[in-house]
Amino acid sequence: MQPTVVDRLIEIGELFQRDMARTFEGTALTLARTAVLWVLHGSGPVTQQTLATALEVTPRNVTGLVDALEATGFVRRRPHPTDRRATLVELTETGEQATTTMVREHDELTSVLTDAVAPADRDAFARGLEAVAAKLRELVAPETAADTAEDES
Amino acid sequence: MQPTVVDRLIEIGELFQRDMARTFEGTALTLARTAVLWVLHGSGPVTQQTLATALEVTPRNVTGLVDALEATGFVRRRPHPTDRRATLVELTETGEQATTTMVREHDELTSVLTDAVAPADRDAFARGLEAVAAKLRELVAPETAADTAEDES
DNA sequence: TATTGTTATACTCTATAACTATA
DNA sequence: TATAGTTATAGAGTATAACAATA
Asked: How many CB atoms lie within 10 A of CB A78?
């Protein structure tokens, strides 16, 4: 029985995770922690509450992730200027470097994988991915479609 | 900036995980545990050592997963007939039912996602996925290509 | 000596609940 | 009264190291 579209997509997902794990080797970074850096890279300094919402995890979870990232020098906590309950989290110089590297590697991977697809197949391939993603969004969480629409900010 | 091929593939991976999590809701199953059931479904009764190799985790990890699956009735431990060091793990009736359901849902998802792609794009889409998977295998672990070749058993 | 599975220990990610300080 | 972040507690997955039983 040859692999189906779903088999291939699942395999690709696993390979992506393995690729990321390989990238993190020897650093204090993990998938969850880089997700925090990624959000901060796109948003600038934000409260932990905002991070919790963006990452779809609990505030308690954010405390742990920020603790770890602060201890290893990637982010810094700073008092919120007007709301004394809140804490702003921002990237340190080390954190900025890490995200810069991540962006570069992401772009390189995009090039490599795009090149791997035969030129004549690329448009159809992109349309197929878009169609599959749209259907999955619909299946998994109807409200996620709205989230994606807001992403344009 | 519109999403690239890699962005889409990452999103699809996340959506798959969310879909699986939704399926497990209310059961004692998790992603790691269903991976065990999936192996047993394909292999029949095997030792924990074999499971560890197949899942690419440590034997200690397998002990924990099998403990959990045994406690919740999905698998059963049985002495190895000839090697008294080893333990055979096999699916119970409950475990068989669970894997049957998993296979059915997997097939349904395959249909739904295949149908979501425009008929004229399907061949190119499949070729593109294959090309991307092949390139990723090459990038991530040169030896994985050999693993896949052995999969025909 | 090598292998199988376990106990012991530890780290990461995740969650809920209760609490403090502040709005 | 509600919100931001923390402490307390718990469970899942993962790992290494040491060990007992068996090969």
From this structure: 11
- Alpha helices (H) along B117-143: 122-140
A149 vs B: CB within 8 A: no
| Alpha carbon separation from B43 to A4, A125, B46, B54, B107 (Å, rounded) | 20, 34, 7, 10, 20
* List of residues 6+ apart from B99 with CB closer than 8 A: B37, B38, B40, B41, B91
* pTM for this prediction: 0.90
Residue of B nearest to A126 (CA): B5
Find where tokens 């699956």 sit. B69
Collect all residues with Cβ–Cβ distance below 8 Å to A27 and sequence separation of at least 6. A98
Residues B66-89 pLDDT 10s = 999 999 999 999 999 999 999 999
**Is the CB of B12 less than 8 angstroms away from the CB of A133?**
yes
Spatial separation of the C-alpha atoms in residues B53 and B70, rounded to whole Å: 20
pLDDT digits (tens, 9 = 90+) for B103-131: 999 999 999 999 999 999 999 999 999 99
